[in-house]
Please model this.
Amino acid sequence: MDSSPPGTGALARAAAHRLTGDHAAGLAAAEAAYAEAGNLIERAQAAALRTHFTFRSGNLAGVLKLADTLSPLMRAHGGEACFEYLRSVALAASELGRIDVALPYAMEVHALAEADGGDTVRAQALMALAACFERMGDPWQAERLMRDALVLTRVSGTPRDLFIALNNVCATLIGAFYLLRGDSTRAEASAALERALPLAREMHALQPQIAERFVHVHMLGNLGEILLHVGDAEESRQLLDAALAIARELALPTQLQRVRCSLAEWALYQGQPEAALDDMRGLLSEGVVMVATQIRAHHATYMAARQLGLSALALEHLEHRTELERQRAVQQLRAQSEQFITRVEAEQSRHEADRARQRANEMEQHALRDQLTGIGNRREVAERLPRLLAEAEAARSPLALAMLDLDHFKQINDRFGHLVGDQVLVTVAQMLRERLRGTDLLARTGGEEFLAVLPDATPARAREVCERIRAHMEAHDWSGIAPGLKVTVSIGLASSPPCEEAVLMARADAALYRAKAGGRNRIEGA
Model:
């Protein structure tokens, strides 16, 4: 993903407003930047900001209208701006229940992230895809994707990234609660809230680290909503009132409407149906954008009217709620039907990709192995040794490097033949494996030459390990390979500091030379 600077003038102002959450001013600046853009990059960045502010302002239909004209431009530009734009369109379409629009955009976002993104970008793509599945009536798949995104965010995301990922998992679980809160699935609905509550608490703890106040509305609203339905009336009311105040201050209509629904349900739980009825009838008369919020508003109005004995009014809103749920169910079924083949193909592609990755890993591992002995080769040394040295230096821990050379190996080949020589090398490799740890680096670096790197080994400990290897090789009964065969080894040892490859290699090589010159079958150095 690219990260081109936002430029100057209106574009810079729009980018600054995005950080502060001033959506109205940001939208005005983005529109001005779009009009005055002098090249494709500036126009695309301005277009992405226009879409972002339109979405954040709650004008979801406006986002889809922008998509009719901006999509070709954004795809031509590509990069981070295109990713953010496509993601905004996918989320807006999801909120409107337009899964036919949302899912293709979300799949495109996912493909971009997989091709050119790190963990945080891949997490954002998974969350957009999860939003589609949640609106398609599949909160189970949505939760799985959201939790995958959360894992990626915990690995490499900022506190703000983690805050948003936690919020999205909570929102998905709250949606599952509303879907399942009938008599026959009440336990499953309650379980969804139980899974959401610790995540919402974790998100609440992160609030002081998040500067953008508009993001706080989501946290306060979600935690307040969860506590409302688990029975904590006092804390839920405090949180919902705080969310309502920020939503009004920042003019966030979709969040404002959702919080008002939660407060109406709070009033119903507290035996105040009149207050709930008045606010919900006022809310519905103002016009509610999100289908899920419309359903909640009609449900709260129905419940309030029923408690007050207003049968005709209760029936009217029950019918409205039922019709909206029916329309949503039809849209969900249609989307599921239309996208079934896509999902099957995607699953097949995933399996093919998994198999390809497995083959690539196997080939990579094969490339790092010595074909005769099965231990590492020079390539593995080149790949692992610098990391081991860097880790030892960072931790200020000891590290030992040993060069091992079989004595008179040419004579073994000449006297017994190369087949016996190969059997000797395989046996020696197995001996070394058995006497070294899994964390040690072991490799065959030449014909009869081996290298062992022992992290966390002091000079004394390294010499003790090498002496056991030398003694075992000398005492081993080699007659099973060839009568009269004897094999010994000379070893050169070097220890850190310094944790420098060239220095340690030179020291070990010099020590090995001394071991050979001193009569072989011995250890020098360290």
User: Anything to note?
Assistant: The radius of gyration is 33 Å.
